[in-house]
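Researcher: Re-running this chain for the archive, since the previous output was lost when a drive failed. Same request as before.
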Amino acid sequence: MNKRITAVLCTATALGAVLAVPTAAQADESRPKGFSARVEHETVTLDFSGDPPKDLKVHLRKKGTTKRVATVTSFHPVRPEDWDPCADSCGDPDPTWFPVRTAPLKLADLGEYAVDVEYDGTGGETVLHKDKAVLTYQVRPSFTNLKATNGVSFARPDTVVSGDIKLYDPRNGSLKPYAGGAFTTRTGTVSSPLTADAKGHFTSKVTFSGAESGTTRAGHDSTYVHLASKANGSEERASVAVPVTASTAARIALDSPTVTGPYGTAGKVSGTVTWKSADGSWKPAPAGLRIAVDTGAGLPHHLTTGSAGRLEGSVPLTKDTTWRIGADSPWASSDTREVTVDTTGGTAFIDFGTTLLQSKYLEVKGTFLSVEVPAGITSLEVDFQYSADGRTGWTTVRKQTVTANSADAFEERVRYPGPGFMRLRYVGTPDIRGSVTPAVRLAERTTTAIPEFNAAPEPVKKGRPITLTGKLTEKSPDWKPFAGQTVRYYFRPAGTIAWKPMGLSKTAADGTFTRKFTADATGSWLAKFVEPTTAHFSASSRVDEVVVTP
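Model: Regenerated structure tokens:
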């Protein structure tokens, strides 16, 4: 039974452009989340995450000037098929995106226009975003009457594409022939420069390699000839769909029907892909033909043929399973071949990362995966390793026991070893493949200290003032006073274990600090510096006990 493995991939280009990232000045509650603007010829499209705001306007100014030449207040929703290239095949569109678009704009003069966007904020205030996009308003090329004379196949890879290039004037909507207009045609990765005749007409033979991508719509396979032309700084793009008749007699001959190897490595898939011509001979598939390896875990893994139809590639080994291999192209329909996969004991790390805390500890996070661990082994040991240069002198600063044959997530703290690098390693055994993470450079903080601290007088009568004094320093690179910082004070009554926050003060230019309190009970005093950012470590003073007498 002939079967072609087909996988439709929805890409992140659904919005047609990368959304603009808001600057810090724009990041306020009045700005709709995810807001961006883009231009397409004479229209402006606004993308919103959430409902579009009230009283929406688009203002246009000649670039470099302040005077508005047009204001647009009417917008229409953009249909999913207008911006989502796979709206028909990928299910419902993202319900959180609400693009709206202007009608084609009519302006008196050609040129470049700055696009400003205005709307009502959440409190009813007017919010204006200037220079959100630039509209190039010029006489531009326009492709019309595009067609291909015939479909294509492995046996007949040629077609003739024809059409007209006209110059479109957005001011009045007129179309005139683009005499001698330069343009390009592209199939796959191959581009050819061409020129239209005196009437803007062109007829060009196009030869496909037989490995170009395509789409399947309503049961019909197609590939494309892509065209592009420029004039006056504006570019027009268009595509001609060319029907493809798939070779139903393609076949994949694998070098081996089995793959074995440790978990975390890759298994090799190799063989030859051929197709049967009309005279009965088998010919090699063209280079670049896409072959799908269905591993049974989500989307297929894809390989491509090389010269002479050779198929060679690697697929990650994740479990004992069966891989199903077949052509994934509008050009070929092949029998599905199966590969039996034997995954042996192995390990891998994912999501490894470190965070340097104020307390001079490293928070280490990650997940350790182990598969096909031999029976009787219930746990494995992971090494937390440090190196000053990330290449040599690795030392183990902690060992962590993890569960075998599982995905064991951990979040542990280790004492900060100093500037350098950290990695995780499982050394492995003859039956279990070891693994190691890439070395991660550790963050750095400046060390601080409170070398001087005193609570006086000692003893002190109840109700009398007690004065706390001290000094905060930082090592950058030598020890020096740390001015303008907040020091917090804590008191622990005698016979208790909990520290009570008592207040705070700022350090002076020489790093000294002082604060008075009323003596109430015998107990211990402590001063702490807690860095509000990630620049410094925290610091604590010595504990000073004060006896309070009646």
